[in-house]
Structure formats: C-alpha cells, structure tokens
Amino acid sequence: MEIETKTEDKPRKKAGRPLSFDRDAALERAMLVFWRYGYEAASLQELTSAMGITPPSLYAAFGDKEKLFLEAVERYSSKNCDALQCLFAAAPTARDAIERLLQSNAIELTCPSHPPGCLVVTAATNCSASSAHVQSAMVERRDNVESMIRTRIEEGIRDGELARDTDAGALANFYNTVIQGMSTQARDTGGNRDKLLAIAYTAMRAWPAR
C-alpha cells in the first residue's frame, strides 16, 4: 500500500517593493551634490533633499552614502570616458587628440549647467583617514584617464608623429597633471573659461617637436 506523502511548500520570498521614484534621476541629482560639496561635506539631508527621497529610500535603493557616491562617480566617469574615446578616435594625430582634450576640458569644467571643476578630481581631495578607500577609488579613476592619454601618445610614436625615444609615460603624466590643475583653477576662479583655454594653449607648447 502506497503512502501518500505531502511536501510542504516553502514560503515564497516576498519581492521588494518597487521604487517610488526615478532612480536614474535621483542618482544624477546626488552626483551634482557630491560635485558641489565633496564626498564628506555632502550631508545626508542635502542629498535626500536634492534627490527628493527619504533616508530609508536612499538606503534601500543605493545601500549607503559611500555606495551612492561611488555609483555617482561611476556614472560620471562612464560618460567622460566614452566622450574621451570618441574624441581620440576622431583626432587625426596624437597632438590633435591632446589639444582637443585640453580645450574640451576647459569648456566642460566651466560649463554653467553644473558645478565648476571635475567631480573625480575635487570630490574626495580633503577626506579624513576614514575615507582613504574612497580617495583610492578616485586615484584609480584619474589613473585610468592618464592610461588612455598614454595609449594615444604611444600610437603617435608608432605612427612616426613623435620620436621613438619619446617618454610616453612622462608626457601622459604631464598632460594629466595639467587637466587636474585646470579643474582646481575652474573651482578657484568660479569657472573662468578664458583662463583655462589659455592654460590649454600654453600646455600644448610643451608638445615635443619631431
């Protein structure tokens, strides 16, 4: 005689409540707050007020302030890296690529639609020791830009545009340093575009002669 056995149904895990706000739009607004005040100075109240959400909603959607910041930086960096790749691809020579990069930075860093300067350069420069890992993440982002610049310069060397003994690493480091300095100048001068364009012009005079 067969004995019928019953298997108890496991309780189904309740699905999380759907977000009641536009996550992308909220992230964009948080990015602007971090951009204006910096990582540590941006308060939870300022963030939630700008995002139009409550603190529990912020934690539910993004985890915590640090994760929110890193996601905002990822959003910012992805856009910039895509734009940089397109700019380099369109430039006929390495010199043109770097010159266009500096000029576009002078314009972007002083654009009135957002805070002056670069989020990745300025948002985590004055953090306490407890936020060292956040600063390290920003260093990694800046190093990534320098790596892209170096790759474009190395292409110029292979194409014969630059002498074979050109130090691509040193040249990339120089122009990346100029870009970071331009970000600081943009903040200090309140977005003086003419000053940044003049810096870009002067920096290109250091381009090695063939």
From TrEMBL:
Keywords: DNA-binding, Repressor, Transcription, Transcription regulation
GO MF annotation terms: DNA binding
One Pfam family it belongs to: TetR_C_13
Superkingdom of source: Bacteria
Protein name per Swiss-Prot or TrEMBL: TetR family transcriptional regulator
DNA-binding stretch(es), residue numbering of this chain: 43-62
The keyword Repeat appears for this protein: no
Span of domain HTH tetR-type: 20-80
Keyword Repeat: no
